[in-house]
Amino acid sequence: MGMAITRTQVTTLLTYLAGAYPGKLKFPSGNKTSDDAMIMAYRRALTGYSAEVVTAAANKYIDQGGEWPPNAGQLAVEAGKIANPEQALTGLEAWAELQGAIARHSPYYEYSEFMAALSPPVREVVRAIGWDTIDRTDPAFMQGRFVKAFDNQQAASRERKALAQITAGERLQLGTSNISS
Question: What is the pLDDT of residue 123?
Answer without folding.
Answer: 92
